[in-house]
Design brief:
Elements: H1 2-11, E1 15-17, E2 21-24, E3 27-30, E4 34-36, E5 42-45, H2 60-64, E6 67-69, E7 72-73
Antiparallel strand pairs: 1-4, 2-3, 4-5, 6-7
Length: 86
């Protein structure tokens, strides 16, 4: 669950991830479904051991703002001329 905070912050997007809870055939599921904002902050995180339903209201404009600061924009700062075939 922690990695999603970094991914959201790097890409300035919302993320909703879900996971099961409990145990099945010896496999334990950690739960902790979550909603993360474009700023990398957790808006909601479910518990590790019980099923939950949660509803939040998001502002899509926040995800459209790709400015990291007044001088850096994650799309405008790309340099595709340096990209190569991997």
């Amino acid at each position: 669950p922690e990695a999603m905070k970094t991914i959201c912050l790097q890409n300035r997007v919302y993320s909703i991830t879900s996971n099961r809870v409990g145990e099945e055939r010896g496999l334990r599921f950690i739960g902790q479904s979550q909603i993360v904002g474009p700023d990398g902050k957790i808006i909601f995180r479910a518990s590790e051991d019980k099923q939950e339903i949660y509803e939040v209201e998001i502002d899509p404009l926040k995800a459209r703002d790709k400015n990291l600061n007044p001088k850096n924009n994650i799309f405008n700062d790309r340099k595709p001329e340096f990209y190569g075939v991997i």
